[in-house]
Amino acid sequence: MSSAARTIEVIGARLGLGGRCVGTARGPLAIRAAGLVARLSAGGGSVRDLGDIVARDVARLPGRDPGAALCAEVERYSLELRDAVEAVLARGALPCVLGGDHSLGAATQAAVGRFARRCGWDAPGLIWIDAHTDANTMETTPSGNLHGMMLAAVHGLDVVPFRRVVEGGVRDPKRTVYVGTRDVDPEELDIVRRFGCRMITPDELRRKGAVAVAEEALAIAGARDGRVSVSFDLDCLDPSVAPGVDCHVDGGLDWPEAQALLARIGAHRGVLAVEVVEVNPAADRDGQTARLAVEAAARLCGNGAWHVS
Predict the structure, then answer these.
(1) 132 is an active site residue
(2) Residue 147 a catalytic site member
(3) Is 286 noted as a catalytic residue in this protein?
(4) Is 86 a catalytic residue?
(5) Vertex 85, ends 80 and 91: CA angle to 5°?
(6) Residues near 155 by Cβ (< 8 Å), separated by ≥ 6?
(7) How far apart are CA 158 and CA 163, in angstroms?
(8) CATH superfamily of 3-300
């Protein structure tokens, strides 16, 4: 079944505890205000907005340990989001999760893995379009930011706030493809290499072309059965293109590169779930990044032509 033939169900993930900028929790509001539902509906499909799951305000401790209270709230929140995404999948719809900081990825990706196992499928592959690999643990992190650890948990490492979240939903790292990678901590890089994930930098994408990279990512992530989920972090784009993010890293993708990449992935029949994350309205310029998030979501959900003014 193509993604365009399914109902798209939107879930806002109002979470800002995983990074340093709590304003990211307002990302889903900004994306909706930029016209998300109308844009998703433009392709003629059915769209349901399920509203937001909202994290509670919890103070973060200074230093590398964010504190037991914050970790407990991220766990509570993530379990709620995981169950919501899994319910969307069980209805045969396409979940489109709006962020919010990327620590929400543990919930979304574990939900995909759990649902696949309930159906008797192999765990789907994962295409992670991001400046970062998000594979640190509590022991390797230099920052203590949970939005840089959730994929380590999804790949089977023990990260306490996500321990219960990923139960039954761990994914195969050899079927994870990173695209846009350019800012990886040294010990984190060792983890990713040990896992056997494929990393594609912006420079490699420019040498090969965005469509060729999309084809390679789909071939690796979709090996065996074609089923994949996709996570799109706006910081994969260059800060000159997408200023409204938490972590600005120069040398990212430009918009035509992202457009071609997303178009090819969104046309793939095996996309099971979509995340569009890390929009920080407080850092944005005139809603520019939120509008790009709308277009990214629309393309990944297989709907409509590409229009950005």
Answers:
(1) yes
(2) yes
(3) no
(4) no
(5) 130
(6) 135, 170, 171, 173, 176, 195
(7) 6
(8) Ureohydrolase domain (3.40.800.10)
Q: What share of the chain is helix, strand, coil (3-state, %, to 5)?
A: 45, 15, 40
Identify whether the C-beta of residue 137 lies closer than 8 Å to the C-beta of residue 158. yes
User: CA 242 to CA 217: how far, in whole Å?
Assistant: 23
> In this structure, are residues 278 and 97 in contact, taking their beta carbons and an 8 Å threshold?
no
Please tell me what DSSP assigns to residue 138. T
3-class secondary structure, 131: coil
Q: Is 102 a catalytic residue?
A: yes
Distance from C-alpha of 160 to C-alpha of 298, rounded to nearest angstrom: 34
Whether cis (ω within 30° of 0) applies to the bond prior to 222 is no
User: Omega of the bond prior to 99 within 30 degrees of 0, cis?
Assistant: no
Active site residue 238: no
Q: Which of 130, 172, 246, 275 is catalytic?
A: 130
Q: Is the pTM of this model over 0.90?
A: yes
Q: Annotated catalytic residue: which of 9, 52, 101, 235? A: 235
Successive 10-residue mean pLDDT values, the chain, 309 residues: 71 96 96 97 90 96 91 98 98 97 98 98 97 97 96 98 98 98 97 98 98 98 96 98 96 97 96 98 97 97 51
* Catalytic annotation, pick one of 9, 52, 75, 147: 147
The continuous run of DSSP H or E covering 200 comes out as strand 198-200
Specify the residue for token string 């046309």. 267
Q: Do 11 and 50 form a contact (C-beta atoms < 8 A)?
A: yes
Can you give the residue ranges of every domain in the chain?
3-300
Q: Rounded CA gap, 272 and 174, in Å?
A: 18
